[in-house]
Amino acid sequence: FAPWADPEAKPLIRFQNVTKRFGTFTAIDNLSLDIYEREFFALLGPSGCGKTTMMRMLGGFENPTEGRIELAGKDISGVPPNKRAVNMMFQSYALFPHLTVWDNIAFGLRRDSKPKPEIEARVAEMLKLTRLEKFAKRKPHQISGGQRQRVALARSLAKAPKLLLLDEPLGALDKKLRQDTQFELMDIQEKTGTTFVIVTHDQEEAMTVASRVAVMDEGRLMQVATPDRIYESPNSIYVADFIGEVNIIEGTATPDGEETYRIDWADGQEPIRATSARSFATGEKCALAIRPEKVTISADRPAEAVNAVQGKVLDIAYLGNISTYHVELPSGTVIKAQTANTRRISRRSFTWDDPVWLSWTVTGGVLLAE
Ligand code: ATP
């Protein structure tokens, strides 16, 4: 499933050079983006980057100041929210407290004066989809938070929108329930084939559920790609740093063989080597981004290691399945190395102040422009 890679595929949603200003403030800055049918698309970025504004423009609660937004090939500027094949599920769920689960789900269908048998069939289908059959007669205060979340989802899908917008849909749930619900959400999205656009500040959540993730900053798209590409091949220090943990080593690049560079880094360490598909000129400033799990920690310098530096253990974060070691180099630079705790003993492998070696391969990091 990769419609974005198919030049023939027609996007369901198309932002064309969209700018949104509030007074003199530019919330969305000349942004273009295509989202395809059946995608589970995540908008991710720090507070204030413009995620909600994007959603509100899709929902019809705001119009672009410049540019256009198309839904299934038609310009939707000026089309009111209730006239769009778009629905929005709010973080607060906004369920009607005095109505039963069944009536909450039926609400939009009744308002559209659908025939009774159609409403009954559709509500039954939604109750089954969200595993709420047993709770149909209860009121929102008589069910759990997770069940309420499912009622809100069932209600937003009842009218079979082309596009469902989800604003922090799992924000009110605790971590464990949230993780289970993520899989449920993916399952429901797949079964209905509805395009989902989710706003979340939780990067793990975005990476878990989404077919593609857009990382935003100050009203602009920094990178739009599949979760694994965003993580493995970030296009900037900003994206590398925003998603997951990363070590950034700044230095200057010198070509050293095909797609390979020698990097002289600022603090007097032995040069390191890295491959890069992007080319760098001799002496060009660069930054190597390396994920902590790509850095191996050992007592001795591994014989075959191309990149190895010596330091001492400054801090250890034991997280059960993994441990993260903060290792200080003589220059004061701190590098994080993560080990998978597959064996019990690994927990006690190294302790504070232990002298250690850190090593990584030439392909272990991503070379970025500074
Ligand atoms: P959060 O994660 O905190 O919800 P966000 O990425 O969703 O943030 P938006 O709500 O889209 O951010 O806001 C983007 C920027 O636009 C913010 O700086 C915000 O203050 C500004 N903004 C949003 N709505 C308005 C408005 N109606 N009038 C003026 N400024 C606004």
TrEMBL record:
Domain spans labelled ABC transporter: 13-243
Molecular function (GO) terms for this protein are: ABC-type polyamine transporter activity; ATP binding; ATP hydrolysis activity
> Which key words are in the record?
ATP-binding, Cell inner membrane, Cell membrane, Membrane, Nucleotide-binding, Translocase, Transport
Q: What class of enzyme is it?
A: translocase
What's its EC?
A: 7.6.2.11
PROSITE patterns, sorted:
ABC_TRANSPORTER_1, ABC_TRANSPORTER_2
Q: What is catalyzed by this enzyme?
A: ATP + H2O + polyamine-[polyamine-binding protein]Side 1 = ADP + phosphate + polyamineSide 2 + [polyamine-binding protein]Side 1
What is the protein's name according to its record?
Spermidine/putrescine import ATP-binding protein PotA
Keyword Protein biosynthesis attached: no
Tell me the gene name.
potA
Any one cellular component term from GO for this entry?
ATP-binding cassette (ABC) transporter complex
Could you tell me what this protein does?
A: Part of the ABC transporter complex PotABCD involved in spermidine/putrescine import. Responsible for energy coupling to the transport system.
Self-association or partners: how does it assemble?
Answer: The complex is composed of two ATP-binding proteins (PotA), two transmembrane proteins (PotB and PotC) and a solute-binding protein (PotD).
